[in-house]
Amino acid sequence: MSLSLQGKTFVIMGVANKRSIAWGIAQSLDKAGANIIFTYAGERFEKPVRDLVATLEGKHELVLPCDVTNDEDVERCFATIGETVGKVDGLAHCIAFAKTEELAGNFSDTSREGFLLAHNISAFSLTVVAKAVKPLMTEGGSIVTLTYLGGEKVVPNYNIMGVAKASLDMSVRYLAADLGRYNIRVNAISAGPIRTLSAKGVSDFNSVLKEIEERAPLRRNTTPEEVGDTALFLFSQLSRGITGETIHCDSGFHIL
Ligand code: NAD
């Protein structure tokens, strides 16, 4: 990979384990020589995330807790980042959550609590972290989030997460419109289905993977590494003219 992010600092939010898409992004950025700050959801993720980070080529010392539903946590996290590194060049938001029981069956059975929870963690959190990182992007920046086709079209069992992704997709456009004047770009990668901890929650996920293999233009499933390299492009100067965009990294499945 010839793209270099040497001397640039990125915040990656949402590594849970080695299957996480955020980890694919971390590997691409690490290879490009970036300085990376990691944030994790809660205490139980600290050790696994620190162990993974230790396997990277670069030395990335800042690994911080940040539950995006907790304003104090977010404030504390970005204050620490500001005090330690000063300037941030990019942020990867790789965070979503919905109740497993609402990722199956009838969408019309979605509970009020489940609806609000999915939107709070999976959509509103992008606005929360964009606001928190903005003062640190003193030389402009690039914010990248992860979305899915289920926010554009009805995908069986994706249910409430699809509605939350639609909200996330529109948040990307409103944030891009807001932050463009500061040379901060905001884009989404719509990833094809990948077997991760979160994906396990979606009922009958194996059939979705099988369908991609059989029907997607590239006839294969998306890998976290492919998404990582798409993020690398969005974090690099090569994408400097792109904001408010959703790039599909899904073997072309969305065109069908
Ligand atoms: P993952 O389970 O590895 O990552 C989800 C992350 O969200 C975890 O690290 C989890 O700790 C974090 N999270 C949940 N609640 C949080 C909170 N309150 N505060 C902070 N972090 C919290 O799964 P993944 O598939 O890598 O998911 C990353 C993103 O990619 C999600 O937005 C997901 O919707 C999106 N995505 C996934 C797929 C797929 O098929 N796996 C496809 C398209 C988009």
TrEMBL record:
Full protein name: Enoyl-[acyl-carrier-protein] reductase [NADH]
Pathway per the UniProt entry: Lipid metabolism; fatty acid biosynthesis
CDD domains according to UniProt: ENR_SDR (cd05372)
Source organism superkingdom: Bacteria
Enzyme class: oxidoreductase
Catalytic residue list: Y148 (proton acceptor), Y158 (proton acceptor)
Binding site for NAD(+): G14, S20, I21, D67, V68, I95, K165, I194, R195, T196, L197, S198
Stretches that traverse the bilayer: none
Assembly description: Homotetramer.
Organism whose genome encodes this protein: Paenisporosarcina quisquiliarum
InterPro entries: Enoyl-ACP_Rdtase_NADH, NAD(P)-bd_dom_sf, SDR_fam
A GO BP annotation: fatty acid biosynthetic process
Molecular function GO labels: enoyl-[acyl-carrier-protein] reductase (NADH) activity
EC number: 1.3.1.9
Gene for this chain: fabI
Family the UniProt entry places it in: Belongs to the short-chain dehydrogenases/reductases (SDR) family. FabI subfamily.
Described function: Catalyzes the reduction of a carbon-carbon double bond in an enoyl moiety that is covalently linked to an acyl carrier protein (ACP). Involved in the elongation cycle of fatty acid which are used in the lipid metabolism.
Residues that bind substrate: A98
Catalytic activity line of the entry: a 2,3-saturated acyl-[ACP] + NAD(+) = a (2E)-enoyl-[ACP] + NADH + H(+)
Keywords: Fatty acid biosynthesis, Fatty acid metabolism, Lipid biosynthesis, Lipid metabolism, NAD, NADP, Oxidoreductase
Any one Pfam family match given in the protein's UniProt record, by short name: adh_short_C2
